[in-house]
Amino acid sequence: MLWEYIILCTIAMIKVSLKRSYRSQNGNTVFVYAVNANAKDLESYKTAQGDFHREAEDGTPLWFTTRCIGERGSLVITSKGKVVPDMSAFEQAASLAKQFGGNFGNELAKASVAKLLGHEPDAESPTE
Question: Are 85 and 73 in contact (CB under 8 A)?
């Protein structure tokens, strides 16, 4: 349910930052994110990950995914206990681009994607 998703987003403040990526044995790109949260949310994360919970050598919890979510992002633990990325910002960007369409929609999409991926859009030099 959508309301459950929204409540879960506000309860858990699980942030992630990209550490590295690699090719798996079956050829998929795997993105590895460092997990950062308060003690309560980290415990919830560890419980939700179960046997899949992994940590870096320094003890930092790691999250592995084949879906890149940019340089930084947030994770949500669903009502079924599954750890998923919070994709609401991506969905908002797609909605804006579709809503306005044309050149303006394309520019909105470019700026949104750059921001979501942790990059600043290129500033164009003024023309006279």
Answer: yes
Place of tokens 């419980």: 47
Domain extents for the chain?
2-86, 87-128
Spatial separation of the C-alpha atoms in residues 112 and 82, rounded to whole Å? 27
> Which pTM does this prediction carry?
0.75
What pLDDT, on a 0 to 100 scale, did the predictor assign at position 2? 47
Single-letter code of the amino acid located at 128: E
Residue 39's SS3 state is: helix
Could you give the residue ranges of the DSSP H alpha helices within 12-101? 39-49, 88-100
Q: Could you state, in chain order, the average pLDDT of each consecutive group of 10 residues for the chain (128 residues)?
A: 46 88 97 97 95 97 95 92 90 86 86 77 50
Which contacts qualify for 111-119: CB closer than 8 Å, 24 or more apart? 116/70, 116/89, 116/90, 117/70, 117/71, 118/70, 118/71, 118/72
Tokens 């590295």 label which residue? 20
Kindly report the number of other CB atoms within 10 A of residue 86's CB atom. Answer: 19
What's the token pair of residue 116? Answer: 């979501």
